[in-house]
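Supplementary Note 3. Input sequence used for the single-chain structure prediction.
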Amino acid sequence: MTLEQALSQIKGPDPQAEQGALDRWASVAKPLGSLGLLEENVTRIAALTGDPGYTIEKRAVAVLCADNGVVAQGVTQTGSEITALVAKNLTIGQSCVCRMARLARCDVIPVDVGVRTDVEAPGLWNRKIAYGTEDLSQRPAMSRRQAEQAVMVGIELIWQLKELGYKIIATGEMGIGNTTTAAAVSAALLGLPARQATGRGAGLSTPALERKIQVVEQALSLHKPTPQDPMDVLSKVGGLDIAGMTGLFLGGALYQIPVIVDGLISAAAALCAARMNPRSRCAMIASHVSAEPAGPLLLKELGLNPMITAGMRMGEGTGAVAALPLLDMGFDVYRGMGNFEEIGMEAYVPQQ
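The predicted structure, written as discrete structure tokens, is reproduced below.
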């Protein structure tokens, strides 16, 4: 399947399944709409999958790992070698998202889409497109073909995970320098000055933040990515992890698997997917709002509301995984709660 074919086959939500979920919520013995986003997201998942009885029992977080050449510009606290180190730790359960995923009954699936070295670790899915990207402040981050290949990796990952029985996928990433690429992608897509889109990432000092802003400004000025062409944006100022996650969201819409948006980097990928095909929004569930400045702006542009506001900016898919227990609670009420007749209560009726 080509990318063009995949984009053309995305159908969007099923209105009958959506109405079935809404009818079920209206029958649950509680005030109408009182669980807010928990209700909305259960309904959203029913509409995507075409099944008001859908469950999310088997879940995974796909952590896409890739390096970024822009690290050479001093925009990070640590070097690129940390990407490979954390990628390996993901395979042995020694990372933040691994600890959180255990509590959320979520499998962790690390994927190498562009780590600059070969990582020998059982459990690491090798889908390497290139050994990292170019320094976007000097040259385009990657070729358009590489960006398309990375997007297709994400689409195919969703198919493979669906074949393994997974019912919902959280998105995560690991790549030193990727808050810089995400800031550049966000600024390009949203038409923002670099300063409004760029944050401290993993905790930069003020002088280092100023350097990071200058690097993003330089990249945007040099390459002039076209906001209406997300592939142009990805190839010029993006990262292989962002391109791969773009594919995850497109694949979720194509194969009717809900995909949870994590933070800044994931949301930038989600907006790329939405610009490629607006119907792909139906697969997206917003977990939290990133503490990075572009985080809330990306979600607003996507028309998504986050379930969690906790000042998180960890990455790895930690915010997306943190949303799973909330979704479990929503589904448990949706599936198991009695209706008004069963408890002898008069049903609520809409007042407005």
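DSSP finds 15 helices and six strands in the chain. The two ends are 47 Å apart (CA to CA).
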